Amino acid sequence: MKKIRKLLFVIVLILLFACTGCLARSPEFNNLDTYSFYANMKPSLANYGKKTAAYNNRIYYLSTEYGTQGIYSMFLDGTDVRREFAAADIRSLTVDASGFYYSCFSHVGTNDNGEYRCFQLLHRDSATGAPIDLIGQAENTVQSDLENIWDFYLAEDGCLYFRTAQMDFYLGSMNLSASAIDQGRILTMPDYTIPLDNLSAIGDPQLDGGLVIYQRKNQMFPVSTYITTEADWATIYDDNVSLFDLAKQRTILPIDALFLSSYERGNGPYSDHWLLRYTNKGILLAYEAGLYEYAGISKTLCSFPKTESIYSTYDTGSDIFLMTKTFRKDGWIRKEFRKLFQIPTKKGENLYRFDPLTGGCSAILKLGDGEAFLFIDDDTVAAASGKEISIYDISNDKAELLRTIKVSHNIVDRANKVDTAGDWLFLYRFNEQTQRDELIEKVYIGS
Questions:
Q1: Is the pLDDT of residue 10 over 60?
Q2: H or E stretch including 308?
Q3: Cβ-Cβ contacts under 8 Å for 190 (sequence gap 6 or more)
Q4: pTM for the whole structure
Q5: Beta-sheet strands, E only, within 320-393
Q6: Counting C-beta atoms within 10 Å of the first and last residue's C-beta, which end of the chain has fewer, N or C?
Q7: How far apart are CA 428 and CA 438, in angstroms?
Q8: Residue 303 and residue 291: Cα distance in Å, rounded?
Q9: How many angstroms separate the most distant Cα atoms in the chain?
Q10: In this predicted structure, what is the pLDDT of residue 8?
Q11: What is residue 257's three-state secondary structure?
């Protein structure tokens, strides 16, 4: 009996040490500003974006052109530049008839990884109006639990769906969860319906088996687990949550590439998936390893090896463009070799065209090391290499180079970010001294 007790005691100690090792902590997990180069893929004339938005024949963007950091605006042709109001930094912006909605830098918070920048969700009814803290004044919330707003979507009925970047307690990494606020109240469980609840919806054993969809009106959240109630409101958790608009048949808040794979994937499970199309005939979803459809049973439509991962999609209404990153094989020896000779983990990026009718997936354009896609629409794609932007026609089977544009800065850099609006490309860089993103170049990329 004593031997059994000793054995059990040793096993418990081993498990405790193992679990302690799983609680990874590192300041790098909080580093969302210089972790990786990032380009925000969205329609050119969308009234929302990370740093830019187009509305009523004007482009609104974060800048410091007149000496003060804030939201500026200009006509679509680049004239009549003016400062609208001051803002230290933003992570998301929407402009409409009711004013300006933006996630603005508020303070520096602290978690187990260390310090991180926090952003609050503000609204101004005009450029001269006073900013209102939408979450801080909500009836049923605790400010500290929703203090780091990553981005948001303003629905046509005025409901704001927002995502917060929060630390995963076990892994230490930052993940995206979602909530919604309507008429000054954070939505609760009864506000959502569940049109699909199948914890074994995905047949591939390498994948997370669950598919649960939460819905409010036209907005849908696909997740792999159940919703969680936080105090008096509902928070939708997964590794990372996306938002799909049923009426527009489009992913409104995709999973940003910063939260997806930056090296060769493991063997699963992969719980990060996002809706591409949702009809009575079935559901089309994407995840890093490929595309699949669900209509009672799951069916893989296209798949990629572990060294290639989807990070963005664009639906033209007929075809769907897939943007992927390719990586060198993982492993301790390979990592040390690359570290010694300063060889990057990422090899390049690829663009594919997927036909939902035939299931065919064809490669259109391949980018090399140090290159990245910047913008895509139905007929064109922009890519960066060094200090050069290349514009391609992608209306045919293969990409055709239309023109190149020289710029003053290297574009693809881990401290840089790109957003586009109204045929203009805005290049931002995180300034370590001022601790904020700053506009370093704006370039017209239209024809």
A1: no
A2: strand 308-315
A3: none
A4: 0.90
A5: 320-327, 346-354, 361-367, 371-376, 380-385, 388-393
A6: N
A7: 5
A8: 7
A9: 85
A10: 42
A11: helix
